[in-house]
Amino acid sequence: MKTLHITLPLTEENTKELKAGDYVYLTGTIYTARDAAHKRMDEALSKGENLPINMKDNTIYYMGPSPAREGRPIGSAGPTTASRMDKYAPKLLDLGLRGMIGKGRRSEAVLDAIVRNKAVYLAAVGGAGALLSKAIEKTEVVAYDDLGTEAIRKLEVKDFPVIVVVDNEGNNLYDIALKDYARI
Fold it and tell me: For residues 2 and 157, what is the distance between their CA atoms, to the nearest angstrom?
């Protein structure tokens, strides 16, 4: 395991160096999208419409923020359970999505799509939303404003801390940790 600092957007070259268990600090642009935004994007794709953001080499953070306190761009910004987006994620990965940030396990279909598209699944620490928000320097709603906290937001982050859970070869930190624990 190593610690890396990566400037976004993620590229296939970036993801090749990331291994399950690595600590990563992201700097650049990430987008937020949760259940309702994913459903709306899926409906747009079904109708042959363009998505509100280009998926190519982008990273989506599964997060719905709390209201910003005075002087801050965002409130608490902790991850939500990623599996709720599993029915939509393979299609977005096939469109070029390179990274996903959330918490919890992913389905086999998502794991296959990660490997197929040389993408990564990253975890942010659940329960640490106030701490994570300190790495967010700027935020703006870019689509689906009517969804409130589930609108798609563009976040400018600096040294946003994540852990590689599934690397682009399909190595899964959750499985690795269970095997290591069983040996103990």
Answer: 21
